[in-house]
């Protein structure tokens, strides 16, 4: 039986119900989408290797046991989780034509994607607040940003994003899927799945908007407000050296935050032209889930001197151990 078709089951109510979805991949280029598997696989491997290296370095180096690097380590774990949630299935689609996915697996993937995505936004907010306190209130920084503070903030973000994303798959699972089961996507996006439902999806769309504009939107507003206050404080500094150091510390954060939230806006806007050019929003959605996990470590490694020193000490230590074992 071809993987792109599913035999519906008939119930006593004479309604047709599907038992699995078919992820068709990138719309309009199904015949040659496998050629994109190599760059996507390389991006995924780069994201895994770089984020694992950053996390190990932060844990291994005592000089990096600071709040800023704590949040960076959490961000690395979130990036690993986000990329790993989607890339193995995408590679299976491109390489082995394994397009079928059961409804429970699809809803589980939907939940994990939303959870990690909101978690990344929350961690960017934590990093922005950390930099705001460090630069705008430097004397109070040690008393405010303590180990207990970091644990509480991180725990709050994990709890918030784990709970607010539960309704997304729950509401999607309550819909009736009775006819078409082919999704023109590489992953189980909420809007892509519920568009196949035979009943009303108004509540699903409303909660998706709530999640995007209230949760992630409020994070974005607070992040940019923090950096506006930071810029205002930095421009008032009398010392050019202090100004340069403050801007250098924040620039790497701001580059990634700008890329992350700009990507969200672009993906949202391209959904408006989905009927005319269906490939663009799907491809951008996939890239927005895999490029930031690969890009984040490179930006931090290039712009943070302490992290580069940590890499060298860690890799140098491994080289010495290897030589001693010989």
TrEMBL record:
Pfam families: 7tm_4. It comes from the Eukaryota. The chain crosses the membrane at residues 35-58, 70-96, 108-129, 210-234, 254-273, 279-302. The keyword Ligase does not apply. PROSITE patterns: G_PROTEIN_RECEP_F1_2. Coiled coil: none annotated. Its main location: membrane. One of its GO terms (molecular function) is G protein-coupled receptor activity. Keywords: G-protein coupled receptor, Membrane, Olfaction, Receptor, Sensory transduction, Transducer, Transmembrane, Transmembrane helix. Putative odorant or sperm cell receptor. This is Olfactory receptor 56B4.
